[in-house]
Structure formats: C-alpha cells, structure tokens
Specification:
By secondary structure, the protein is an all-alpha fold.
C-alpha cells in the first residue's frame, strides 16, 4: 500500500512572549509596569532605557543591579510607594490591631513603611512572619534598617517583575496605583 504525499508539519503561529512584548512596548507603558514593581522613577527609566533584554534572567539581573544603585533619595521614593500587605479577610481584628500598632511603631522609628519579601511564606504564616520581622527590625539602627529595607525592596521588585512577565502579574495597561509588599494579589506584592 502506498501513501500519498506527506503534508507539511502543522506549525502554530508564533505568539509573542511576554519578554518580547516588554522589549517592544512603548517606553511609557514599560515604565508604568516597572513603577508597579518598584516605585522609583530612576530605577524604572534605567531598566526601560536598556531594552531589549535577550532573556528574563538578563532583565532580572539588570533590575537587581539598578536596585543596588539606588541613591538615598531613590530609596526614599521607593519606600514611600509601599504599604503593608493586605491581610486575609478572615483575620481576627486583634491581629489587624497588632499589625497596625507594630507598623505605626516602625514608621515612627524609621519614617517609612515596613517592607518585607514574603517569598515562599505560606499565606497562613504571613501575619506571624510580618509581626516577627517588624518587632525584630525595630531594634535596628536607622542605617542598618535602610540597608535591610533596600534589600527587601530589591527582592520585591525582582519578584514582581518576574511575575508580571510570566503572566501572573498585572499587564502594563492594568497596573494598579501604588501597591504594597505582596506580588501575588492585584494591588499588592510579596
């Protein structure tokens, strides 16, 4: 039995990857996405101006480098855009009060919002982790805390940027106003 001519292999049309869209998006859209990741104009401009990036790791490395280079003014600007992460709706009011009190003490001591990268922290453990970290970091001197806060911001920015480009974060045109410290919720970053 002979077969007829073989049909050419079916190929799906090439869909743009999120990094391709990031690399070719208008500068203002890219900066808006980046501003959601870290609230620093200088940081977002620096990353946007160095496009295109060959791969996600190159982009994340550039984001890290730019975050390490934040001046004290840039850091203050980025910290001003942060707030505490939202707590689950079923969290006891006493927990909300404890977190609010700890955060108020932190802001009074350091003059900015407390930031923390929650990473792989299970949502059920987030509140305890945040409270423990605030209480622990209240003992820091202001310079030591500035260094820690800058590192937490860098980790948050990296996580938010990676989530955005993996399709689990906001689209540049859907970037919400000033987020918090959790990247998994629409207006907050982790």
């Amino acid at each position: 039995m002979t077969r007829g001519p073989t049909l050419p292999a079916h190929r799906l049309p090439s869909l743009p990857r999120p990094l391709d869209a990031f690399n070719t998006a208008p500068a203002d859209e890219t900066r808006a996405l980046l501003q959601h990741c870290l609230h620093s104009l200088r940081w977002s401009r620096r990353i946007a101006d160095h496009r295109p990036y060959p791969d996600l790791e190159s982009l994340l490395a550039a984001a890290d480098e730019a975050a390490y280079d934040l001046s004290p003014g840039d850091l203050a600007e980025a910290l001003a855009g942060e707030s505490l992460p939202d707590l689950p709706e079923d969290t006891y009011s006493a927990a909300h009060m404890a977190l609010s009190a700890a955060h108020a003490a932190y802001e009074a001591r350091f003059g900015h919002a407390f930031v923390i990268y929650l990473g792989d922290t299970h949502p059920d453990e987030s509140l305890d982790h945040i409270l423990e970290a605030i209480r622990s970091r209240l003992a820091n001197d202001p310079e030591e805390e500035r260094v820690i806060a800058a590192e937490e911001l860098r980790r948050l920015a990296r996580s938010r940027l990676a989530a955005s480009l993996r399709g689990t974060g906001p689209h540049p045109s859907a970037v919400p106003p000033r987020g918090t410290t959790s990247p998994h919720a629409p207006a907050v970053g982790k």
